[in-house]
Amino acid sequence: MRNITIGLDIGGTNLRIGAVTRDHQVLTRKIIGSDSISKAADPIDELSRLIEQFIAENHYENIKAVSLGLPSSVANDNETVICTTNMKNRSGQPIFQNTNVAGYLRDRLKLPVYVNNDTSNILLYDISSNGLQNRKVVIGIYIGTGVGASVLIDGKLLKGANGAALDLGHIPYFRGTEPCSCSKHGCCECYASGWKLQKIRSACYPEEDIQNLFARHGSEAPLQEFVYSCSHVFSVMATIFNPDAIIAGGGVIEMDGFPREQFEKMVNENTGLDVMKYGFDYIYSKPNADKGIVGAAIFADRMMAG
Ligand SMILES: [Zn+2]
């Protein structure tokens, strides 16, 4: 029986590849720097070779699919990666831009191949591990270096007309003036992200390790302001979607001492009153480095089930 999915979680910094069983256990995993793909002469060829090598090293013969999560929107064909803005090649260009990654790898590997946005795979993992499969509307918002979001409505991932929906890191914060990496000004990521938290650390707590900021200084003004900025994007999303549950995760929110109670109070106070009549559950994504590869396997299962 073909019972192993090769799951990949490709981030701006690290690439994780793992073999995931039918019941979502990870048999083997390997972590490499994403640069070894992005800075290769031919990134997609290098990616293909990495997968072939992983399969050969572990002598896997019963593979049902290969499934990749990438830091990009994926077009509605579920094959074409729109743009890996944070993964650049040797020439400084995004490694994949309107690239049919699934089609290329399928031809090379002779296996079913699926690609998905990395945040959507994490949401699928969190829904599965928290038993939320039967909820009508579940939102996942993940604040790490940047901001990622995914929404599941009636069991379906919300993709938008072309696959580019929910680029939440670049939702405008009203009249914000901070310049963003995307070339706009005043995006969400300028105020509520790991990148901003690093800026606060350098300006106000240069001696402190970033991991200790909430635990040691959470009640002080710079971090209060930061938590408020994080809560804002949750209020916007809750007001739009009237969710059953919001999953909150990502490196910033999963940090020790992140003031959950106060954060929820801020979100609740700013969410539209009609939505708040019903309320919603807050669920915190638990740190687990394998989330992305297991989520990729869950996505492959969904695609194979049609
Ligand atoms: Zn932006």
Can you describe this structure?
This protein is an alpha/beta fold and 306 residues long. It folds into two domains: 4-121 and 289-304, 2-Layer Sandwich (Nucleotidyltransferase, domain 5), CATH 3.30.420; 135-284, ATPase, nucleotide binding domain (Nucleotidyltransferase, domain 5), CATH 3.30.420. Helix content is 35%, strand content 22%. The protein has ten helices and twelve strands. The strands form three sheets. The protein has a five-stranded mixed beta sheet, with helices on both faces. Strand 8 and strand 9 (147-153) form a beta hairpin. Residues 170, 180, 182, 184, 187, 189 line the site of zinc ion (ZN).
Keywords:
single chain; 306 residues; alpha/beta; Nucleotidyltransferase, domain 5; 2 domains; 10 helices; 35% helix; globular; binds zinc ion
The gist of it:
The chain has 2 domains: 4-121 and 289-304, Nucleotidyltransferase, domain 5; 135-284, Nucleotidyltransferase, domain 5. The protein is 35% helix and 22% strand.
**Count of DSSP strands:** 12
Helix content: 25-40%
Unreliable stretches: none
Q: State the CATH superfamily name of the largest domain.
A: ATPase, nucleotide binding domain
CA-based shape: globular
- CATH architecture classification of the largest domain: 2-Layer Sandwich
Query: Between the first and last Cα atoms, what is the distance in angstroms?
Result: 19 Å
Task: Quickly name the level 1 CATH class of the largest domain.
Answer: Alpha Beta
Helix and strand element order: EEEHHEEEHEHEEEHHHEHHEH
Separate helix tally: 10
In the CATH scheme, what's the topology name of the largest domain? Nucleotidyltransferase, domain 5
When the domains are counted, the total is 2
Average of the residue pLDDT scores = 96
Alpha-beta classification: alpha/beta
